[in-house]
Amino acid sequence: MLLSWLVRAAPAALLLVGVNASPVADHRKRASLDDFIKTQTEISLKGVLANIGPDGSKAGGVPAGIVVASPSRSNPDYWYTWTRDAALTYKALVERLIAGDTSLKQKIDDYVTAQAYLQGVSNPSGGPDTGGLGEPKFNVDRTAFTGAWGRPQRDGPALRATALTIYANWLIQNGGATQAKNTVWPVIAKDLAYVVKYWNQTGFDLWEEVNGSSYFTIAASHRALVEGVALATKLGQQCTGCAEAAPQVLCFAQSFWTGSYIDSNINVNDGRTGKDVNSIISSIHTFDPNANCTDATFQPCSARALANHKAVADSFRSIYGVNKGIAQGRAVGIGRYSEDVYYNGNPWYLATLAAAEQLYSAIYQWDKQGSITVNSVSLPFFRDILPSISVGTYQKGSSTYASILSAVKTYGDDFIAVVQKYTPANGALAEQFDRNNGSPLSAADLTWSYAAFLTATERRAGVVSPTWDEPSNNVPPKACTGTPACNTKTTFNVRATTTFGENIYVTGQLTQLGNWSPADAKPLSASKYTNSDPLWFAEIELPAGTVFEYKYIRKTANGQVVWESDPNRRFTTAVGCGSTATVNDTWR
Ligand SMILES: *[C@@H]1O[C@H](CO)[C@@H](O)[C@H](O)[C@H]1NC(C)=O
Ligand SMILES: *[C@@H]1O[C@H](CO)[C@@H](O)[C@H](O)[C@H]1NC(C)=O
Ligand SMILES: *[C@@H]1O[C@H](CO)[C@@H](O)[C@H](O)[C@H]1NC(C)=O
Ligand SMILES: *[C@@H]1O[C@H](CO)[C@@H](O)[C@H](O)[C@H]1NC(C)=O
């Protein structure tokens, strides 16, 4: 979640309202890490459930299966349901269901119903079949949020498909194949159709700020497509285009690797290093317990993901007061990215927990594989926590293997200890903790913070999510191809009475319409213009199934530009490549 979109423009003072200036944890006697985890796990599960309708204690009046991002209704206002946060939260709940907590089943069924409903709600990103699934958030009463926002965000459908696919597979194994097919699959199918259609287009990243290609979105898309194909087969259903798109998405994913870390946002000039916990969250999301340490899918134990872990962690060492004086090789508070200015930029609980989760997931993979390989890419990561280590493969049973595993476990626990240090006595997890004094900051009781605690500590205990079939889907094709353009012919008809020398143009939100720039606006023709029917028209190729805003402008003989009156006009192009549509407007 994250509101820099709006907050960027807000006065800085507003952002500091509610900051508790006193350090919270230092005065308390600290429980052992195991005791802390035990207590905090209970608190975190309660914290998640409290934020879900209809009976969550902090989600009064919220419909069944709707996850509120946080009960905070001002400074910041997170009283919305985000597709991403809800999906990651439910992924954690489905994992607990699989691990035996069947009391969660009704809640999960509520989620399926709620998401099926939301998929049908038209919103500023589009209608159900025209891009609306990429809308980042909705009002908690399931109506569209129509304010300005960084949209679309294309990770939501992929994440929801994954949460529901894990659930559908569990249903199939537990006598619920009919429910999986008739109730869950239709929701997944729509999400996957969205991914197939849009994976190769830009959108906003998980922090809702950067309009480009986000590694997290691409990694989540690949996973969702791969497991979607397998599920469709099991259910005797079609996942049109999924099997073809998946390797291409993996191919594109390779281009985020810089040689020493993942650049989390590409196809955009954002002026950042790209070191962003986006990439670590990607690695834990696409962790497959059956995978080797595959670089191509950025598995937690892969050399690339470990080098990236170091790069991202190191980017926060010198910038936060709470991290000062902490030696290399010891855990620090992790934020989103070092250039972050939201609430002045702070460590986040869920980011610090993700750093721990990657390490626990890596340990699971090494243990299963029976060896640890240190190569030139991962060597600096290992050297930080075990200075004597050198390049090589170390077999389970050897003392070096044991030393590495123990050092990684200690390092993972150290990240949990950072979270422990900055968690208040009542266990409430906000979004962030202050970069200097460690006090909880921003949204209180952030659902995602609690969910992140649950998954990190499950991995520590060796509890993992089911395989998504990574081992058979981890080789990118040699050459990458994007999706071919899918355009539609849109005819603009506008009745506009003009005087000699005046011309009519159309401009708007799309590149094809000149992005609101009068200089790049598209000219209309007056070849059918008559006194009784002052018709100006143009036939323009636009992306299919796309909602956009536009206006007509009039350029006078001396070059003056006259805009139509407000509001902007709005249209959704026809669905289907090569289709046509006509708009009939009258100049205002
Ligand atoms: C689309 O895919 C091609 C091939 O992988 C890639 O070069 C391009 O950057 C991608 N563009 C977007 C916006 O995803
Ligand atoms: C996002 O960037 C693409 C080009 O990279 C552009 O076509 C699109 O209009 C941008 N979207 C927004 C909402 O700024
Ligand atoms: C993992 O690597 C081992 C050794 O290279 C190989 O034998 C095995 O087939 C691989 N497993 C998977 C799932 O890729
Ligand atoms: C515009 O008019 C044409 C017929 O003149 C019609 O086919 C088309 O549906 C109209 N467009 C809209 C958006 O109503």
UniProtKB/TrEMBL annotation:
Positions of the CBM20 domain: 482-588
Keywords: Carbohydrate metabolism, Glycoprotein, Glycosidase, Hydrolase, Polysaccharide degradation, Signal
Gene Ontology MF: a single term: starch binding
GO biological process, one term: polysaccharide catabolic process
EC number: 3.2.1.3
Keyword Protein biosynthesis on entry: no
Coiled coil: none
Reactions the enzyme catalyzes: Hydrolysis of terminal (1->4)-linked alpha-D-glucose residues successively from non-reducing ends of the chains with release of beta-D-glucose
Binding site for substrate: 149
Active site residues of this protein: 205, 208
Protein origin, superkingdom: Eukaryota
EC main group: hydrolase
UniProt keyword Signal, yes or no: yes
Gene Ontology cellular component terms for the protein in this record: fungal-type vacuole
PANTHER family documented for this protein: GLUCOAMYLASE (PTHR31616:SF12), TREHALASE (PTHR31616)
Family note: Belongs to the glycosyl hydrolase 15 family.
Protein name from the UniProt record: Glucoamylase
Originating organism: Westerdykella ornata
